[in-house]
Design a protein that fits this description.
Number of strands: 0
Structural class: mainly alpha
Radius of gyration: 26 Å
Order of helices and strands: HHHHHHHH
CATH class of the largest domain: Mainly Alpha
Number of domains: 2
CATH architecture of the largest domain: Orthogonal Bundle
CATH topology of the largest domain: MetI-like fold
Helix content: over 70%
Strand content: under 5%
Largest sheet: none
């Protein structure tokens, strides 16, 4: 009986606290009109962005659904049958191949830079400057390099391997830099606690540091996937 009474009393208190916090926030906006204007602009911008996204998706669906047919997803691509399926399959294969090669290289390079490299090392500075420089190079330059090196110099032709290795060079700096920042964000206290319990360097990295940095690493991988899909779509379609 006492528990039910306490629960009944706690709920209204929570409501009053929420109401008072909202009222305090409105009073703070009245005392500082600039904050209220900025909050209103932020709210309007978020609503406008969401409305624009809904409009674009609806417009694409309304205009595109009437043109969908079985021939659009045929395995045979001819001048009469402009099938979309071969391009989708090639995009998927290029994306998977490039990520299979670039993701491990980028993550292990980030682990070396954060966990093993000596702080202030000239090699680390050169690697970071090189990665930042490669991140700012236009994609057309990567395509030209892949055409001259993989296709012409190595005689691999216009193959999926040539395209995937070109994309690996393109997305490797992105994955490496995002993974490095994710590893740096892991508190040193985690490492010290692991070392204090007797774990070695490698065990600490793979059981403590990497699991804690997974969200940041996944964010970099997702950004790399978006760039790969965008570039392959621009080249294929």
């Amino acid at each position: 009986m006492q528990i039910e009474t306490a629960a009944a009393i706690e709920v209204p208190k929570g409501k009053k606290q929420n109401e008072s916090s909202f009222a305090d926030q409105m009073r703070s906006y009245l005392r500082h009109p600039g904050s209220g204007v900025l909050a209103l602009i932020t709210l309007l911008a978020s609503v406008l962005t969401f409305a624009l996204l809904v409009f674009l998706v609806g417009y694409i669906l309304v205009k595109g659904i009437p043109y969908l047919s079985a021939d659009l997803f045929s395995l045979n691509y001819t001048s009469e049958n402009l099938s979309l399926l071969p391009s989708l399959i090639n995009t998927f294969i290029l994306t998977v191949l490039s990520l299979v090669i670039a993701a491990p290289l980028g993550i292990f390079a980030a682990i070396y830079l954060v966990e093993y490299a000596r702080k202030g090392s000239k090699l680390v500075k050169v690697i970071r400057i090189t990665a930042e420089t490669l991140s700012g190079i236009p994609s057309i330059v990567y395509g030209l390099f892949g055409m001259l090196f993989f296709v012409t110099a190595l005689h691999w032709g216009l193959s999926l391997l040539s395209g995937s290795l070109t994309l690996v060079i393109m997305i490797l700096p992105l994955i490496m830099r995002t993974a490095e920042e994710a590893l740096k964000s892991v508190p040193d206290s985690y490492r010290e606690a692991s070392f204090g319990l007797g774990a070695g360097k490698l065990r600490t990295i793979f059981t403590i540091v990497l699991p804690s940095a997974v969200p940041g690493i996944l964010a970099g991988v997702i950004l790399a996937i978006g760039r790969v899909i965008g570039e392959t779509a621009a080249l294929i379609y």
